[in-house]
Amino acid sequence: MVFDYIDGAADDEVTLARNVSRFRDIELVWDALVDVDKIDTSTTIMGAASASPFFISPTATSRLFHPRAGELAVARAAHAAGVPYACSTLASTSVEDIATVNPGTKWFQVYVWRNRALVKDMLERAKAAGFGAILLTVDVPVAGNRERDGANDFSIPPKVTWRTATQALAAPGYLWDLVTTPEIRPANFAHIKIDGGLIGFINAQFDQTVTWDDARWMRENWDGKLAIKGIATPADAQRCVAIGADAVWVSNHGGRQLDTAPASIDTLPGIAEAVGGAAEIILDGGVRRGSDIVKALALGANAVALGRSYLYGLAAGGEAGVRRALEIMDSELRRTMALCGRTKLSGLTRDLIFQRTLA
Ligand SMILES: Cc1cc2nc3c(=O)[nH]c(=O)nc-3n(C[C@H](O)[C@H](O)[C@H](O)COP(=O)(O)O)c2cc1C
């Protein structure tokens, strides 16, 4: 059930599959006989130095994937790799605790909750804990329909039913960690009484009346960097720029929200053109290989965010698993750049993408 929660997406999972397969459809060409002895992947993302053009995307309740390691392991691994760490609003570890293990670049993902005082309080806490940017997620007006979770009786915190109990007993190491560590809950809201677990909290706090005025309110109440996450059209990208966002984040939530949405990589070129350099562009969705990062940058992204690619590592091996996932991504990126004959990220340009002339 934990694997399905990570691996699954909404409805028929068409968008999830397309996010991945459309990267595969894009063909790369290369410059031959270029000195590629020194590859430089360093960059800045929303003003922060990063060793690579990728970073950790916010994902809810990391302790669910590894009850002992959780967010602290991911935050440590990101710091060790020299890349930004983004914490979900629905994290199972508080921003203050995360800050103790990661003195590097940290960002905080937010939704506009019904209770605006709660949002303001959260922004102040994030700022005090050293989180330098907020990421406003705008593709969750209602929760997506994740059918694998229903089939598994899956909930946060997990409830005991025949299905969940038999699955848990088949994974005794996980079960042991689960029962010998604190209950998994939204740690940033430990001071608030939450009925009905995470879903109850989401249902009570998600404000379905949120509009661009609220995004503007967020901009006015936060003096750090702001990215708007979950943009799929050039028109919305221009709205992000108009309210003063520092980054437009092209994303369909990894296919977990509106199914049959186009693959992120397919919406990127039009959005990059509409933004025209007025804000940075971040892309996520289906990034599984270093070559995917090269393609995203060549088509106009400044950086990519990693979701499932580090979550599989976390679930399989805790902190060591996340470190390994980031190492693999870094080495694949470097190898692809060398094979393409480009040594710097600024050299990852559109001419690397093969334009088919034959059907
Ligand atoms: C298990 C899981 C939980 C997620 N939780 C959040 C979240 O709390 N907030 C958010 O903005 N995005 C969340 N996302 C979306 C990711 O930030 C990201 O957009 C997506 O995973 C990218 O697609 P990829 O996993 O194919 O790389 C979640 C994704 C997954 C897989």
Key words describing this protein structure:
TIM Barrel, binds flavin mononucleotide, alpha/beta, 359 residues, 8-stranded parallel β-sheet, single chain
Can you give a write-up of this model?
This protein is α/β, with parallel strands linked by helices and 359 residues long. It has one domain: Aldolase class I (TIM Barrel, Alpha-Beta Barrel), CATH 3.20.20.70. Helix content is 43%, strand content 11%. The protein has an eight-stranded parallel sheet with strand order 3-10-9-8-7-6-5-4. A two-stranded antiparallel ribbon has the order 1-2. Helix 5 links the parallel strand 4 and strand 5. It is globular and about 60 Å long. The model has no long low-confidence stretch (mean pLDDT 94). Flavin mononucleotide binds next to helix 1 and helix 15.
List the helices and strands and how they pair.
Layout: H1 2-7, H2 14-25, E1 43-45, E2 48-50, E3 54-56, H3 62-65, H4 70-81, E4 85-87, H5 95-101, E5 106-110, H6 116-128, E6 133-137, H7 147-151, H8 162-169, H9 172-179, H10 197-205, H11 212-220, E7 225-231, H12 234-242, E8 247-250, H13 264-275, E9 280-283, H14 290-298, E10 303-306, H15 308-340
Parallel strand pairs: 3-10, 4-5, 5-6, 6-7, 7-8, 8-9, 9-10
Antiparallel strand pairs: 1-2
The protein binds flavin mononucleotide (FMN).
Flavin mononucleotide is lined by residues 5-6, 19, 57-60, 88, 90, 109, 137, 229, 251, 253-254, 256, 284-287, 306-309, 311.
